[in-house]
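About this split. The held-out portion is used to measure sequence recovery: a designer receives only the structure tokens and must propose an amino acid at every position. Recovery is the fraction of positions where the proposal matches the reference. Here is one held-out target exactly as it appears in the evaluation file.
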């Protein structure tokens, strides 16, 4: 197979709306059952199974079985990064708002969400900007963690230093936010910060989707850690 042939196969795989919908749903970083994905895309279970088999065979998704249940997730951070980068190439198209619930969901996603395993939306961009303003992160020539930023992660947040370098994944990476049109922090550091915030319930998920919100204790923590004005999160 030539590179051009493989690229064409990838394009054809993502050209189907149902498969693209599955991939974007899985950007929440969690494993979904085939039934959950079928309901999300509003397709029959048999149709969902056919599309999921193609995504798994192509290496974009991976499956896990627990008893009678089949769980599907993205194959890894590299696939999430690819999908994020492809999505950011296009001007954001507001989802059709057919009800107050649709409008509420859209606003919640824009305010704060997970992008696979890191924070995105206004929340993700605000945290990234605050880290840059306080000298923890620099964005002059791409994204790079400063010495102060490394000390902040391992000291203030208590993240194990070995965990930061345990994978071949980039330590920090800029990810263009598709709603804010500005970069937010991705990579290993972005994932660990997101996990730290969720574990301490500074940030909690809204329902079963990708949207998240900052809790009162989270607002206080972000003010103390990053001098982040809570007003930017409203």
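Reference sequence for scoring:
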């Amino acid at each position: 197979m030539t590179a051009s042939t493989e690229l064409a196969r990838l394009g054809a795989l993502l050209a189907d709306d149902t498969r693209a919908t599955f991939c974007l749903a899985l950007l929440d970083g969690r494993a979904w059952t085939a039934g959950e994905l079928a309901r999300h895309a509003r397709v029959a279970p048999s149709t969902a199974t056919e599309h999921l088999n193609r995504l798994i065979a192509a290496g974009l998704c991976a499956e896990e079985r627990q008893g009678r249940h089949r769980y599907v997730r993205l194959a890894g951070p590299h696939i999430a990064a690819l999908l994020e980068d492809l999505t950011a190439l296009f001007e954001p198209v507001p989802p059709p708002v057919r009800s107050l619930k649709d409008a509420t969901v859209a606003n919640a996603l824009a305010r704060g969400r997970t992008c696979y395993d890191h924070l995105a939306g206004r929340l993700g961009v605000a945290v990234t900007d605050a880290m840059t303003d306080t000298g923890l992160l620099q964005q002059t020539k791409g994204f790079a963690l400063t010495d102060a930023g490394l000390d902040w992660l391992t000291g203030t947040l208590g993240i194990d230093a070995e965990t930061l370098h345990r994978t071949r994944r980039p330590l920090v990476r800029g990810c263009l936010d598709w709603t804010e049109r500005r970069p937010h922090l991705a990579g290993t550091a972005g994932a660990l910060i997101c996990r730290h915030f969720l574990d301490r319930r500074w940030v909690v998920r809204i329902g079963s989707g990708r949207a998240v919100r900052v809790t009162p204790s989270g607002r206080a923590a972000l003010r103390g850690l990053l001098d982040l004005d809570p007003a930017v999160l409203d």
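Annotator remark: Residues 100-233 form one domain.
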